[in-house]
């Protein structure tokens, strides 16, 4: 794919983490412009080992290949899908009547103070699944914080503005399995159009295509990550905090052409969340005569709770 046909801009995180002042400034501007203009960006130079990502994909495939009865042992009552396994057909987009065509496993934050019950369940049939997942979680958390640091500078906030709230935040690493499609879906697609709830999402290339974003003209554009590129998008929390200055763009995962229905799809997003007490009250600097305040005050925890009910994960 040539640069001219790319749907989303591309930045190199190493420019920010290791560059001189001018290189860092150019990165911050490019990232800020991308998040303001289209809400998505591709990131290379992130340093997350490809072997770790590949090994986690293999382990996740092994987990999802198990019998449903075995997977259900890892479904945690009362966790609202925030830890462990969520079986097929439970989650839907907030405006949709039909559940998405997927099952998933979520790995949540772990801190030394947590009891065994509060931690993620270990999968005894595939022990490497959680071992690799915990390592990947920390890598994503670190790189996500670098990107948020750049965004804080772009917004003229203190450099550590977000990291003060994301330490021990309730971020989620989610392994999503879209099984082969065996019969004509009742209007459902693999993941109906939606916006993410969190601050930013980091997504390593899926095992099959289908990810699309909706641009400001309402057209659906395919996102095709290249090589080791991670796709990053703005979530609703960051859009809310910046009073719509940074865009939480609608996206979806469409079904493949009929001749590829037999192919499953595996996708690994990391949803970067702050701690529940973080204020999402609109930043004063983002309220202007042209852009009056669009949102009521709320905390990150209050907002997350509201959204989990809308998508059917919390009763």
From TrEMBL:
What keyword terms does UniProt attach to this protein?
Iron, Metal-binding, Oxidoreductase
PROSITE patterns annotated for this entry? Answer: FE2OG_OXY
Q: Name one GO molecular function term.
A: metal ion binding
One Pfam match: DIOX_N
Sequence ranges assigned to domain Fe2OG dioxygenase in this UniProt record: 168-274
Question: What family does the Swiss-Prot or TrEMBL record give for this protein?
Answer: Belongs to the iron/ascorbate-dependent oxidoreductase family.
Return the protein name.
Isopenicillin N synthase
To which species is this protein native? Neolewinella agarilytica
């Amino acid at each position: 794919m040539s640069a001219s046909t790319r749907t989303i801009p591309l930045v190199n995180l190493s420019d920010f983490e290791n560059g001189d002042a001018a290189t860092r400034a150019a990165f911050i501007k490019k990232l800020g412009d991308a998040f303001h203009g289209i809400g998505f960006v591709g990131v290379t130079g992130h340093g997350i080992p490809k072997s770790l990502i590949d090994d986690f994909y293999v382990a996740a495939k092994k987990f999802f290949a198990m019998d449903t009865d075995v997977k259900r042992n890892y479904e945690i009552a009362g966790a609202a899908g925030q830890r462990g396994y969520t079986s097929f057909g439970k989650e839907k987009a907030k405006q949709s009547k039909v559940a998405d065509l997927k099952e998933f496993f979520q790995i949540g934050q772990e801190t030394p103070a947590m009891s065994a019950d509060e931690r993620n369940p270990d999968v005894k049939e595939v022990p490497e699944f959680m071992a690799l997942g915990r390592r990947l979680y920390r890598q994503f958390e670190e790189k996500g914080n670098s990107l948020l640091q750049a965004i804080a500078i772009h917004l003229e906030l203190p450099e550590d503005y977000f990291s003060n709230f994301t330490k021990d935040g309730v971020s989620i690493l989610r392994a999503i399995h879209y099984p082969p499609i065996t019969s004509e879906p009742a209007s459902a697609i693999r993941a109906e159009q939606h916006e993410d709830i969190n601050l930013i999402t980091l997504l390593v290339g899926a095992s099959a295509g289908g990810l699309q974003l909706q641009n400001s003209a309402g057209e659906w554009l395919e996102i095709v990550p290249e090589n080791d590129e991670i796709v990053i998008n703005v979530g609703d929390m960051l859009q809310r905090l910046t009073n719509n200055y940074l865009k939480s763009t609608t996206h979806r995962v469409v079904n493949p052409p009929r001749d590829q229905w037999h192919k499953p799809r595996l996708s690994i997003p990391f949803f970067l969340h702050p701690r529940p007490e973080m204020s999402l009250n609109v930043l004063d600097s983002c309220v202007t005569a042209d852009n009056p305040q669009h949102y009521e005050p709320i905390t990150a925890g209050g907002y997350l709770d509201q959204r989990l009910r809308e998508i059917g994960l919390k009763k």
